[in-house]
Amino acid sequence: MRTDKSFAARLKWWRGHRGLSQLALAMQCEISQRHLSFLELERASPSREMVDRLATALGIPLRQHNALLLAAGFAPQWPERDLAAPDLVDVTSALDFMLAQQEPYPAVVVDRHWNLLKANAGAVRLMEFLVGPLATGAAVNLADALVGPDVLRPHLVNWADVVRHFVHSIESDAAADGLDESAALLERLLAYRGVREALRTAAPNDARGPVLAMHFRKDGRSLQLFTTIATLGTPQDVTLQELRIECFFPTNDATARLLREWAKPPARRGIDEAARARA
User: Fold this and answer.
1) Are 195 and 167 in contact (CB under 8 A)?
2) Is the CB of residue 203 less than 8 Å from the CB of residue 133?
3) What pLDDT sits at residue 205?
4) Overall average pLDDT of the 253-276 stretch
5) Which of 109, 107, 37, 45 is nearest to 71 (CA)?
6) 214-218, strands of its sheet edge to edge
7) Angle value at C-alpha 17, between 11 and 21, nearest 5 degrees
8) What CATH number labels 87-274?
9) 7-71 belongs to which homologous superfamily?
10) Is 153 within 8 Å of 144 (Cβ atoms)?
11) What is the pLDDT of residues 193-225, one digit of tens each?
């Protein structure tokens, strides 16, 4: 994001990043433009209340709000807990409930940079169908899995269309949060073979439906899924603000039937297959 980590440099960067003049930001914060100018020139030091007021006016995420406080010489305001922390049990229970309610369809919980944190059984079944058994405890980044050449791409029929949309969303994330890690993720994805070419190619007008579905095909089976992404309302923790819950839904009856079939116990599945064969 920047090499100068001082409060003044951070404030000036965020103001420019949000496309605000000094006057516009000063009016939002109900201070004089002269005072804001002095803050950016390091001719004045902010109070903690002023840092909070500026961060709120600029819409700075909690992680970066903490960084702004630290740069001004104050302790961070927003905690960053591990998702397994005891005082987040109500939230993790809610996440588990959402994942369970989505069965037999896939659902996952990821962090800001698409590292997989939780997955329901439907998501595991889908991934294992596409890429084989998953190693227990292995770190999975869904952005790399989607965009890279060797994981999901061989089975994603409309890879270019999906990646074009996904990378644009990563660009928006990087612009919104100003994190070096978000910019690094974007650069990593852009470096994968074929990504920049996909971004330069527009989707045909006749291919645009109400939502962009991911069309997977493997071993003669076809699955078409679209997704919804939810976040937690009014988070007061860095970890929670950066969580995303992505739920997958079938776009046709054939995909829905296949996902429901995979969810049946093996014995039940065998009985149903035998019944269909007799019919």
Assistant:
1) yes
2) no
3) 60
4) 76
5) 45
6) 116-119, 107-110, 244-250, 221-230, 214-218
7) 75
8) 3.30.450.180
9) lambda repressor-like DNA-binding domains (1.10.260.40)
10) no
11) 999 999 998 776 655 678 899 999 999 999 999
